[in-house]
Design a protein that fits this description.
alpha/beta, rod-shaped, six-stranded mixed beta barrel, binds adenosine-5'-diphosphate
């Protein structure tokens, strides 16, 4: 606290000089020459002088908005030369209240929130703040205008708001720079009356004006000319010099005034903490809402980026899961098939033979192998008949096709060697031929193309309609009895070690090509196909992510652009905030919060949009699988974009000098 105890002198300037220029080759010009000035607590003092005499410069130094080039400034006995930027901000926040010629209200805040600004930086509770600002504004006759924006109010009303703001944290010292300069004379008189009442009530009022008539209303007039004090007149000794601050005299005088109760004790118990995140976000949201169309345009890049990341990842995941489930439905990844080439260029007569089967059997890592020659045929059992695929295959078929027996047994090697007339039924075929569940088909004879075959086994359901509705017979039996040809049709095999799959597939190709003298066949494997597909879709996903990434960067640049523009446009606002006590960290946090709010809002809209597009695609039959990870990733990217691209503009804003910012430079 800036208590002055029993000292009556509050402000003491000694040998203060201020020069401008001097850097970058311009000659230094001294505009204040050795100013000595003491101001007591509770004084009502006017600093008067012609335009260009140095009044504003002096006021900026008095209000700690600018530093003197040399000399000492003691406030309540403390030399402020040693103060850090944050301590100066604290002093402005706790001790000073500024009233400017141009009111300097923040255009995007309503009356009540403008008045609250100094208390925000002092860490006062939102409810306490708004109550206090309402009571101040009510006493200043603006109780009905709490939610009016500055541009909806007259000059006199705006000036009263700025006076309320000056009083928000106590306003021990009111610094008024040409407070009546922009007002008509009647309104100007009202404002002066208000300032006089504040002085009566115990505030130290420092009035800066070029108008002698205005100055005459002060209790002490200091005239400044060409940067020097040329006159210091004290017509009446202010009471406060005789009565140290904190005595009861102030309230005694104020009891009869229109501003009874305006003399307020400092409201804050300064925390020294920067404003809270919630406060920063709320304020960012208010600011962005005021220029919502522009904000929306800025959001667009982020929205598109986030939505595309989510849709692309969902579609990618959907298609790869669809492929995988197809794979699961159509068989084992262990299975490799060799089919004669049906490419017209190679001719179609190059069927595979049993010799080829033996050639392939010799290839390393081939675990089980069968010839595979399916042909249409007619099955008859008693009254029932059924036309379906007859698969001529070998004893290792169970392993190759990953089959399980429901009953009986599979084709054996002996069956093959003896060309036994035996048949294994798929579960579907069993139902067709033996609809009566109670009849055991094992051992029964059925006719295939008119020839009798004994049923030796029934397969478990495989889930694949075609497989379930076939029958399997030993290859030799079919070749001999049914097809009348030794053509192997195709070769199907199972590899042992999946890790060796690729080499095995290549080995099969090479061995067969060598044996046959031509590459007139194709080697297929589901895993290889899926892998190729996955590889293609991964590359596609990479490309699409790249596009999404680029749109996020473009969005980020949009955010940075808007923030830089915003800092430029709101330089004066930054100045006002600094004058009312914002720390550099507060300003930085405010602008960073705005960038983050923009990008998070963009992220949220993008999320909803992405899910919407995904839902539409789903309705259109495109396989879509939303992934929480993708959503978090996209959202995280949006947040990071705001932080990264908002950082620079926020820092630029925080580093502005208070005077320069106030001047809107
Ligand atoms: P007043 O408020 O009495 O009109 P100022 O304090 O604004 O006077 O200015 C005093 C002198 O200092 C003027 O000559 C003005 O041109 C000069 N001056 C004020 N600010 C700057 C600045 N930032 N850079 C250079 N000269 C300045």
């Amino acid at each position: 606290m800036w208590s002055i105890g029993m000292t009556t002198v509050l402000i003491e300037l000694a040998n203060i000089r201020k020069s401008y220029g001097g850097q970058d080759g311009t000659p230094a010009v001294e505009v204040l020459h050795s100013i000595d000035l003491s101001i007591g607590a509770g004084e009502f003092i006017a600093i008067v002088g012609a335009s260009g005499s140095g009044k504003s410069t002096l006021m900026h130094i008095l209000g700690c908005l600018d530093q003197p080039s040399s000399g000492s400034y003691r406030f309540a006995g403390k030399d402020i030369a040693a103060f850090s930027a944050d301590q100066l901000a604290q002093l402005r926040r706790e001790a000073f209240g500024f009233v400017f010629q141009g009111y300097h209200l923040i255009p995007t805040l309503d009356a009540s929130h403008n008045v609250q600004v100094p208390a925000v930086y002092a860490g006062v509770d939102a409810s306490v703040r708004s109550e206090r600002s309402a009571s101040l504004l009510t006493r200043l006759g603006l109780g009905e205008r709490l939610d009016y924006f500055p541009k909806q109010l007259s000059g006199g009303q705006q000036q009263r708001i700025s006076i309320a703001r000056a009083l928000m944290n106590g306003g021990q010292v009111i610094l008024a720079d040409e407070p009546t300069g922009a007002l008509d004379s009647a309104t100007g008189m009202e404002v002066m009356k208000l300032l006089s009442e504040l002085a009566e009530a115990g505030h130290t009022v420092i009035l800066i004006t070029h108008d002698l008539k205005v100055a005459a209303q002060a209790k002490r007039v200091v005239r400044i000319h060409d940067g020097r004090i040329v006159e210091d007149r004290i017509p009446v000794m202010p009471d406060s010099i005789r009565h140290p601050e904190g005595t009861s005299h102030g309230s005694a005088v104020a009891s009869s005034s229109a501003v009874t109760g305006l003399r307020v004790q400092p409201a804050m118990t300064d925390s020294g903490h920067a404003i809270g995140l919630a406060e920063a976000f709320a304020s960012a949201w208010r600011t962005l809402w005021v220029s919502r169309f522009r904000t929306l345009l800025t959001l667009l890049g982020i929205v598109i980026g986030v939505a595309s990341v989510i849709v692309l990842m969902a579609v990618g995941k959907g298609s790869s899961e669809a492929t995988l489930s197809n794979l699961a439905a159509f068989g084992s990844v262990h299975r490799v098939q060799v089919w004669p080439d049906t490419d017209p260029n190679h001719g179609q007569n190059a069927g595979l033979s049993l010799v080829d089967v033996e050639t392939v059997r010799e290839v390393a890592n081939v675990q089980a192998i069968v010839p595979f020659n399916p042909q249409q045929g007619l099955l008859v059992a008693g009254e029932q008949s059924f036309s379906t695929w007859i698969l001529a295959t070998g004893s290792e078929g169970m392993e190759v096709f990953n089959l399980r027996m429901q009953s009986g047994s599979y084709i054996t090697r002996e069956d093959e060697e003896q060309m036994a007339a035996v048949v294994v039924l798929g579960i579907g075929t069993r139902g067709r031929l033996f609809p009566d569940e109670s009849i055991n088909p094992l051992g029964q004879y059925i006719q295939i193309n008119g020839l009798p075959f004994r049923v030796i086994g029934v397969l478990q359901e495989t889930g694949d309609d075609e497989e379930d509705n076939t029958v399997m017979v030993p290859f030799a039996s079919a070749a001999h009895r049914l097809w009348g040809s030794q053509d192997a049709g195709a070769v199907q095999l199972r590899v042992g070690d999946l890790a060796q799959l690729d080499q095995t597939v290549i080995g099969i190709g090479n061995a067969l090509e060598l044996a046959r003298g031509a590459r007139d066949f194709r080697v297929f494997n589901d895993a290889v196909r899926v892998r190729a597909q996955n590889e293609a879709s991964r590359q596609q996903a990479l490309l699409l992510s790249l596009i999404a990434g680029i749109s996020l960067i473009v969005g980020g640049i949009g955010v940075m652009n808007i923030m830089l523009m915003s800092v430029k446009e709101r330089t004066r606002e930054i100045g006002i905030r600094m004058a009312t006590g914002a720390r550099q960290s507060d300003i930085q946090r405010q602008f960073l919060s705005e960038a983050v709010v923009v990008s998070l809002t963009g992220g949220a809209i993008g999320l909803v949009l992405g899910m919407g597009i995904g839902a539409v695609l789903m309705l259109l039959g495109v396989p879509v699988v939303f992934s929480v990870r993708a959503m978090l990733l996209a959202f995280g990217c949006a947040l990071a974009t705001g932080l990264v691209f908002g950082w620079m503009p926020a820092r630029a804003a925080a580093r502005l000098r208070p005077v320069a910012a106030l001047a809107g430079e």
